[in-house]
Amino acid sequence: MLIKLIKFFVCVTPILFSPLILNAQKTDDLSVSFSNAQDSENNRDYETALNLYKNIANQYPNTSYSKESIFKIAVIYDEKLYTPPLAVNFYKKYLDQGSGRNSERARTRINYLQKYENINLDKYQEYITILNSNPGTNNIELRKKMEAFIDENPNLPMLDDALLWLANEVKGYRRMIEKKEELKDIDNAIKLYLRIVNDFPNSQNRIIALKNLGDCYLFKKDYQTSKKYYEMVNKEGGQFGQLLVDEYAYKAETYLLQDIIFYFFLIVIPIILISFHFLFPFNIAAKHDFQRALYKTLFLLPFATFICLIIFILGYQKKDNIVGNEPYFMLSVMSFAIISTFFNNIILEIDKKKEINIFIYIPLFTLFIVGVIYCLFYIFGTLSYIERLLS
């Protein structure tokens, strides 16, 4: 009896477990095939890789390997063989399989590549080759190649992309203008951005071009024009536009306000000085009045001189200086403090002989001091300290 049971189990066991064995073997075969396809892709043998991925997708549908293979095929056509129509087709097939970890990327690439579906593939591949051969920014040779490509193909649907790339390269990726010669590049970039804005009103690149125009005029310190373009981005770009220019629009408004205040004080300071001449009787001040005023000022002079020297020595070429002019700025402020103190002492000496209207003098003198110090901040480029306090 025992022998019969053993024989029975020996016969039945392979039948019962054969599906599991077959499935395990199938999974191993799939894993090996997918690994071989990846190896071919990594070795840049894209034709072999495509054949292997396609075999997996066709022979083993509705598996995770099949879905991943379809995505891999799309990526090869997109990023390696530069064939937008086939890339879009396989990205769509991937999305048809249901949601996956690469679904968002697939949708993004479809939106980007759809404008290239009907393009001349040779032209598209030439364009992508120029982009992918870029070793760094401001490469003169590549800029010339792109300029030639744009001149030779004025009617291509991707011309706005080419213009945007070229404009960005011409503008560079600087945060400020350090040399006057760089303004020439900024002017050339402005022409390219304006071409995108005017010739491609429905392009997605229009918003980016408008924002970069704002940046260019910010570099040129034309804050009014810069603000105008940032406002256009806010208006046309919706939430995306607001995110794009939020910080830069604030800078443009801040710098514009700084300019207005500076030119206001340039007008007001001379008016205050002239009003001092007519409001206060300097003609009654004798020589000994000036001597006493100077004598009182000398109490401040040693301290101010000491502070100036210490700040200049410790601040000169210091790494944490924001603009590099901090020592010269402080020297100027201290010098002005000595001069304004001397002037105030003269007024006090005059007041002993003839009473002056203190309610006129104090506001005028205060406005004069604030105006001069603000102008020094502006001239030496150290207003960034005030910006830090306000932010």
Overview of this structure, please?
With 391 residues, this protein is mostly helical. It has 16 helices and no strands. Helix 2 packs antiparallel against helix 3 and helix 8 runs parallel beside helix 10. The longest helix has 57 residues.
Strand and helix map with partners:
Blueprint: H1 2-42, H2 46-59, H3 64-80, H4 84-96, H5 103-113, H6 121-132, H7 140-152, H8 159-171, H9 182-199, H10 205-219, H11 223-279, H12 287-298, H13 301-315, H14 326-353, H15 358-379, H16 384-390
Helix pairs in contact: 1-2, 2-3, 3-4, 4-5, 7-8, 8-9, 8-10, 9-10, 10-11, 11-15, 12-14, 13-14, 14-15
| Shape by Cα distribution | elongated
Query: Helix tally?
Result: 16
Radius of gyration (Å)? 37 Å
Distance between the termini: 92 Å
Number of strands: 0
Largest sheet: none
Nearest-integer average pLDDT:
81
Series of H and E elements: HHHHHHHHHHHHHHHH
Percentage of residues in helical conformation:
over 70%
Helix/strand/pairing category: mainly alpha
Instruction: Name the beta content range.
Output: under 5%
Low-pLDDT stretches: 12-26
